[in-house]
Request: fold
Amino acid sequence: MEYIQPTLDDNISKVQTVLGDSDDLVIRQIQFGTEWKMRAVIMYIDGMVDTVSIQNFLLETLMVDLPKTILSRGIDRSDDVLLFLKESVLTVGDIQELCDFDSLFTFLLSGYTVLLFEGYDQGFAIGMIGWQERNVTEPSGETVIRGPREGFTENLRTNTALIRRRIKDPRLWIEIRRIGSVTKTDVAIAYINGIVNDKIIEEVRIRLDRICIDGIMETGYIEELIQDETFTPFPTMNNTERADVAVAELLEGRVIILVDGTPFVLVVPALFISFFQAAEDYYQRADISTLIRGLRFVSFFIALLGPSLYIAITTFHQEMLPTQLLISLAAQREGVPFPAFFEALLMEVTFEILREAGVRMPKAIGQAVSIVGTLVIGTAAVDAGIVSAAMVIVVSITAIASFVMPAFNMSIAVRTLRFPLMVLAASFGIFGIIVGLLILVLHLCSLRTFGVPYMSPLAPMNIPDQKDALFRLPLWMMKKRPHLISQKNIVRAQNGPKRKPKRGENR
Reply:
């Protein structure tokens, strides 16, 4: 560790050398004091600071207002001038003391303004950050009809403020870590003390402190480095860019991880059932939310098993179909030269290509190309006799069902597992699908996320937590938090039994 030198010119030369005399490094040397001149230097990165604040609160304070203070009427160099400047002169809230160059470069490259003095081996890092940032807007990936429209931004402090504004409780604790030897990215851990499971928060700390990498660009880096299971298609950590969802997860006893530079925050632990719950489930009535959630589970099985069941039934189990439907399918497939498996594989791969092209193309034409391309290719394939019309319908319904799930990462898992199930269906029929589902269930039950079983509260079965699992009961009935996540202070409401008001009671 190299310490700051009392000679101001040496410090300036050191900073210029390390930063390669970059053009965006601004160095402003000044002198202040009347009876004796004290040299100082102000250094900052252009574009990362508020230059108006530097003019008003640093240059004007030191060079114009300071000669009128007690420093010009008798303080000499034997007094603690730096302490006097910090406590009585500088009208800035965020002032950090600097003693070494490692801290100096960290603060300087984080948007702070550095103030060094001639004859002193210490300095100040002053918080005057002022770079351009995106405003708080509605998240594009998690839209709701009813509910808040505020989403996280790329600024870490804005994101923590959005959480603080909703949770006005001193038990909301936020811990900051810098991860990445080059990027030194700020990573925040947020939780509610007294509600969160102490073992979970300690495990999060240990896994984050274990990370040794040169840079963190997004929460995906953190997720891949601290997740429980690597070789599984299912996500073991959830993510969201909605502030209200993050707050709801905190109130259930979970931990959220925020990374500076991305609007997505991680939520741990994440259960399998969590990926079928949307924010709007809790803003609508319980019966409506239950029906919509049931529709998501049905769509999950359609997206997972649709092509596989079609392949198995048309290849091995034709006796399961009504006679009229069997004759219709046989007539459609009469001119198709490929077996059902290759037909389904061709259509699925084609649709995945179109979907990926629609995402990567410019926004103005991406949606139009994906829709038109799907219609044109599907119709042309049927007319050319490459695939049957029934296969186009099955693939289309399967693709639409995969979009019903609120969590995009769970949708990717379903799309991935669809192909091995198609292979099992083409090889062994429905028996192969059953074997594949058994393997899938065993794999899901073996997963854990930060010590919590991935399939809870379904496996192991927890009856009290079923109030918000496959269906959602009214809020006044959900008095306790999930047992396996928050094992202390689990009571979240003291509402009594719901009763119907008597006639004329509210008059």
Q: What stands out?
A: The chain has a mean pLDDT of 87.
